[in-house]
Write a structure and sequence with these properties.
Layout: E1 2-7, E2 10-13, E3 18-26, E4 32-39, E5 46-52, E6 58-59, E7 67-71, E8 77-82, E9 91-99, E10 112-113, E11 117-122
Parallel strand pairs: 2-11
Antiparallel strand pairs: 1-3, 3-8, 4-5, 4-9, 5-6, 7-8, 9-10, 9-11
């Protein structure tokens, strides 16, 4: 099983940046997807960006051009660079891993989740 731990959340002002990290350990199937999601209380978990195996990242329209997903060379750490943050980006942010994924921005495709890290953007 995979274990994931997010870090890097915090409170920032509108227009500022944050970089989230996700340390991944444990066994991961060769056919897998990795992604970043966020959730606001009372709303469904939203897919932000994800990759399927070695394919290029797929971004949600809400973050395209502002958020960038990357991996360290050893693929054990994911990063989410978030620029030009807006108050509507305020949420709990999660990284996740799934296997044999279909729609990589659909949270239901994922099996393993981190505990989340809070991001708060004030105006």
């Amino acid at each position: 099983q995979a274990q994931l731990v997010e870090s890097g959340g915090g409170s920032v002002q509108t227009g500022e940046s944050l970089r989230l990290s996700c340390a991944v350990s444990g066994y991961i199937y060769s056919n897998h997807c990795m992604g970043w999601f966020r959730q606001v209380p009372g709303k469904e978990r939203e897919g932000l960006v994800a990759i399927n195996n070695d394919d290029s990242p797929i971004y949600a329209d809400s973050v395209k051009g502002r958020f960038t997903m990357s991996q360290d060379m050893d693929r054990n750490t994911l990063h989410l660079q978030m620029d030009s943050l807006k108050p509507e980006d305020t949420a709990m942010y999660y990284c996740a891993v799934g296997t044999f994924c279909g729609e990589v921005l659909n949270w239901e495709e994922y099996t393993f989740w981190g505990q989340g890290t809070q991001v708060t953007v004030s105006s």
